[in-house]
Amino acid sequence: MKEIRNFIDGAFVATGKTFEKRSPVDGQVIALVHEAGQAEVDAAVQAARAALKGPWGKLTVAERAELLYAVADGINRRFDEFLAAECADTGKPMSLARHIDIPRGAANFKVFADVVKNVPTEFFETPTPDGKGALNYAVRRPIGVVGVICPWNLPLLLMTWKVGPALACGNTVVVKPSEETPQTATLLGEVMNEVGVPKGVYNVVHGFGPQSAGEYVTTHPGVNAITFTGETRTGEVIMKAAAHGARPVSLEMGGKNPGIIFADCDFEAALEGTMRSVFANCGQVCLGTERLYVERPIFERFVEALKKSAENLKLGRPEDPETNLGPLISHEHRRKVLSYYEKAKALGATVVTGGGIPDMPPELAGGSWIQPTIWTGLGDDSPIAREEIFGPCTLIQPFDDEDEVIARANDIDYGLACSIWTKDLSRAHRVAGQIEAGLVWVNSWFLRDLRTPFGGMKQSGIGREGGVHSLEFYTELKNICVKL
Ligand SMILES: NC(=O)C1=CN([C@@H]2O[C@H](COP(=O)(O)OP(=O)(O)OC[C@H]3O[C@@H](n4cnc5c(N)ncnc54)[C@H](O)[C@@H]3O)[C@@H](O)[C@H]2O)C=CC1
Ligand SMILES: O=C(O)/C=C/C=C(\O)C(=O)O
């Protein structure tokens, strides 16, 4: 049986306690994961603190950037191993991970290496009473040891999205991957060693949240800042933990994102984009569209077309090139998603397609498979329209008027993402400007430029990461004033 160890101070560390990692595809145990206790988290934080003062802390920006380029190349060199590990942990189709998860995992290091090399800081000349003046300039310094708490849906991508900029800025990290997806973060430890990243710069501790590695990292006084992606309620707990020592947090949390489809849209493009935004990664994308508003003249046609496309999705093993829908991450998560499927029926939804567990061949019957599901017939007040489900499902409702749909899209506690589909560019700008979300796409979805700000409003998040915005979180900006 494969064993997944912690990565602390450049070494792979076993502990006396392991937990099982099961495949979402067939339910079989695929690895035993060594759970970090307080002692291992202490060791990881200590290693990260020591590394700040070691060779890592003495590198120039250009030298650090070179090392991060080497990390990206190291991931690409072992692309197939990362791909296999990510798909084994998540069950996601290899066709998806090959194009999104692994390339982005590598790109996150290159992009932020470039950002730190190229971003200037401020300079001001200040007049003084003696007429000689003063010069003010700002410098960025690392914030220290960053605790990185990660989810399971895009494990390598979302972890490196934080580790890339954190290291580019000269910090060191203690990463706590999701208990569901321990493999790629660990494999990255091997790459760090291979390319010569000094020991202690990148540390990984495995385990759960409360009374386990997650809590030990976020409550550790040696951790200077915490960055988190995951569920909103977990983010609240982490924010409380960070209050001790007044430590900064960056929180990327849940969403209940609307898609708005106007009758004048490019129908086929809107259909294709919506298929991805609802069903990609089996709906386990925080940017996904779980609420669809379709303008009444094309409502029936769009529902019918989405149903047809959803029914053509091919569930299957990750390595099958035909597969475009994997299982949910776990049986526990499937229980949550199914509870919404049951709730929708009980509330009187029209189940356009899906609504349950698919028949799978016997060898896959132990996996956490679920049917792609579309509902109509429920209103904005229903829990199906208000609560994040995080599954391959969406509620479609008609609308009649622009102001009405803006108000309905905004009437929610979340504010992460929105997609607007229309050929009328004036309307696109007008609506985009009024939507309460950190990310608005027009005639697209998940079109990501890593230099742009990423994050949510309301209960979807605090802070923005991406491009120079990541520098705001991962550095301390210091002003130096020189009297002439
Ligand atoms: N916005 C996003 O990107 C994501 C949102 N989710 C949402 O979260 C739901 C549940 O997924 P989970 O992975 O269970 O999310 P979660 O928020 O429970 O877990 C995310 C990470 O936080 C850790 N964690 C949990 N409790 C903690 C605590 N008290 N202190 C420190 N660390 C803690 C977990 O071990 C994991 O590494 C999903 O159903 C979905 O609604 C999940 C993944 C990504
Ligand atoms: O950074 C990205 O491009 C992707 C972000 C996706 C999420 O945060 C998510 O699905 O959880």
TrEMBL record:
This is 2-hydroxymuconate semialdehyde dehydrogenase. InterPro entries: Ald_DH/histidinol_DH, Ald_DH_C, Ald_DH_CS_CYS, Ald_DH_CS_GLU, Ald_DH_N, Aldehyde_DH_dom, OHmuconic_semiald_DH. The keyword Oxidoreductase applies. The keyword Nucleotidyltransferase does not apply. GO terms for molecular function: aldehyde dehydrogenase [NAD(P)+] activity. Pfam families: Aldedh. The active site is at E252. Belongs to the aldehyde dehydrogenase family. Residues 16-480 form the Aldehyde dehydrogenase domain. Keywords: NAD, Oxidoreductase.
